[in-house]
Q: What sequence folds into this?
């Protein structure tokens, strides 16, 4: 009989990514829990899409109610999308006051990059060298998960990503300066090559790069370099946004810089396909003038209802405060774990990284990290890996994650580490 | 007090498209009907997103049920998306047996174009010269609604779109041949310029181009030219797909050609943001090998449930048969209407065009068409315009559109035309 994996390959083709050596067959979710087809329960320490918890009834009800009333595009007027944009923009402490609603983070980043083009009239783009910003052809040219066919186009420059253990320039104290110098050099190259410089796109938590520990102000020299060159700072908040980091609604607040454009995605409506680009009126006007943009599904009444309900739950259940409290608690417990292969344990809010290294304390311990992920899965705890060499454990649970959930994860991790070779 | 339009401009920026001189404020939908904020009812003769009718309870219930059970990505295994792809692919009469699920038609076309790149190793693309295939930066380079900043890139060639009243080459009888000759010339240019030829993307109803009357076999010479050059035929079924044309599930069946890749979008899940790319295993394998593609929301259990429910309703309510029956009936009634400005009334299934022309019988009567659209709106009938000069009335109602709905629309149109200057 054909297995689910065989059927999947027959219908979806080869190389369709799954998690784990033997993929999970998940059939039900609730809060921070997932159940597989055999009824086994897993603590979800990985998924950020179900931001306010799997299948949160308030979001499900909002979707069902609005879907039964009206679901049409924004070529007709409707209050709900405006109510949402108004509340969303109020979450930003500076002059980002307008938004475009789309369906995926990729669509949002595809627009953000064009905003930089529209404002500057230039096409040169900079990103970090181990990042992922989405899957449209345009956006994927910034990603390094798989270099584009024919190599990176001439208008793209990648700069070395910040790193806690192997700092850019070799020294943690000067990493911020050297990082900015590399951006300045990339800008010079783009200008010399005739592309000019349009913008720098980054995740303010450098989440795919490995979630390095960075001090507030780390990006100040870089932002100054970008601004001086007339470019835009494009901030991809798809992972750190919506309170994930506990101390603030947005990742850029933690570092203390003010992006020109912010993109939002996955957690925005707890799984409903919606995303957004938030920016200043001058940037929006330049984009709207240059590109005749319309998105059929983007910002429809059901999407807006799902977004509003998600925002409501974050506020009424105090999930940002919870991320701060449980984040601090769990990070401390994670940092109490010891094993010679642990190079650094770091985190902010409900976003944790544990980097595994070889005996020299620097070389990435990729296989070790994979074994830990598999060991945790065997103990019913779902998490994953990030980093240039996939040697960094990534924990990014749904936001209602409690201290006792943290205890469960930490205790299981302690057991897994205890059985790993020293 | 701030109006809804002012608020919209404040929050979404300038140039956000709406329908009508004074936009509608719609608050409720059911079947083929929409209601505005003042309780006025409108017959929807335009929207194809609510394919099986606005707020169809079976689709709403499927979404609500699945959203309350599980909504996660496809990195875990789940039957529902496979059940859907299997049923979807069974609707194709040839070897298109695999699919990628995404969130928007734009994402689907962005992939389809890359499939042509992956199979051929070339980058040259051809489209018709008055088309729209989506809003990512890559896909929008094929669209002519607004030419890209800096002009069309060197790897894109646009060929004149087929036309009922102003045939390519000047003669209806030879239009198919001349159309193919233009494609052949574009291929030669792309090859001479070093880009090579990857694929030709088209809507098989040429819906944005004006929905011209074309005989079965029209594209045969073109498909032969494309195949001979080693390129792929990429068929954008976002508008004609899912039985819209009555006589078949897909637009390409009406013309009788076999595309290598088919993209699907808007009507697929009755408004839930989902889309797909359907293709042969060899094309899929080439794409999956060349691009490491993953879409977070694409094909999640809720999207799959919405798609399955929509497919169920199309089948159980006999909506393809209804499109055929009501289409033939309504087209005949539309063709009975007379006014000197009507150049041609055409259609297929529940997709109608009425082209308005000046006294010479050829020059587009754009203002006349706009006045008719506004007049119909005043009578509570929603429709719109297409074509190079926006002089063609476009009717594309939800699929449960009945004969008596057709009567209402035709009678209102008769009244509007009777009051228009001769």
A:
């Amino acid at each position: 009989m054909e297995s689910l994996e065989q059927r999947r390959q027959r219908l979806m083709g080869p190389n369709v990514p799954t998690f784990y050596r033997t993929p999970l067959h998940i059939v039900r979710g609730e809060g921070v829990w997932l159940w597989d087809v055999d009824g086994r329960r897993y603590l979800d320490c990985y998924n950020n899409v179900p931001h306010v918890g799997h299948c949160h009834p308030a979001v499900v009800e909002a979707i069902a109610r609005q879907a039964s009333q009206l679901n049409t595009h924004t070529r007709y007027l409707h209050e709900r999308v405006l109510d949402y944009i108004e509340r969303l923009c109020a979450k930003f402490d500076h002059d980002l006051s307008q938004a475009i609603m789309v369906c995926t983070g990729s669509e949002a980043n595809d627009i953000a990059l064009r905003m930089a083009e529209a404002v500057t009239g230039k096409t040169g783009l900079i990103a970090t060298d181990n990042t992922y910003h989405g899957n449209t052809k345009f956006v994927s040219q910034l990603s390094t998960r798989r270099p584009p066919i024919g190599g990176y186009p001439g208008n793209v420059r990648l700069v070395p990503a910040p790193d806690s253990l192997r700092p850019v320039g070799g020294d943690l104290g000067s990493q911020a300066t050297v990082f900015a110098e590399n951006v300045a050099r990339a800008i010079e190259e783009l200008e010399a090559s005739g592309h000019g410089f349009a913008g720098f796109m980054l995740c303010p938590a450098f989440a795919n790069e490995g979630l390095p520990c960075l001090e507030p102000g780390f990006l100040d020299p870089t932002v100054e370099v970008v601004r001086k060159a007339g470019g835009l700072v494009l901030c991809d908040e798809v992972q750190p946004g919506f309170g994930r980091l506990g101390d603030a609604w947005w990742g850029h607040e933690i570092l203390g810089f003010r992006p020109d454009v912010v993109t939002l995605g996955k957690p925005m409506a707890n799984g409903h396909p919606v995303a957004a680009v938030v920016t200043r009126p001058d940037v929006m006007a330049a984009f709207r003038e240059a590109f005749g943009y319309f998105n059929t599904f983007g910002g429809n009444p059901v999407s807006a209802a799902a977004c509003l309900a998600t925002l409501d739950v974050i506020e009424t259940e105090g999930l940002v405060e919870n991320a701060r409290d449980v984040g601090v608690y769990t990070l401390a417990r994670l940092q109490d774990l010891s094993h010679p292969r642990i190079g650094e344990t770091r985190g902010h809010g409900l976003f944790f990284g544990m980097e595994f290294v070889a005996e020299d304390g620097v070389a990435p311990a990729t296989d070790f990290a994979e074994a830990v992920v598999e060991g945790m899965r065997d103990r019913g705890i779902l998490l994953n890996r990030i980093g240039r060499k996939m040697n960094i454990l990534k924990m990014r649970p749904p936001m209602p994650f409690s201290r006792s959930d943290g205890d469960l994860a930490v205790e299981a991790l302690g057991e897994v580490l205890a059985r790993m070779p020293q």
Summary: The radius of gyration of chain A is 21 Å. Chain A has a mean pLDDT of 96. The first strand of chain A starts at residue 26 and ends at 30. Residues 175-192 of chain A form the longest helix (18 residues).
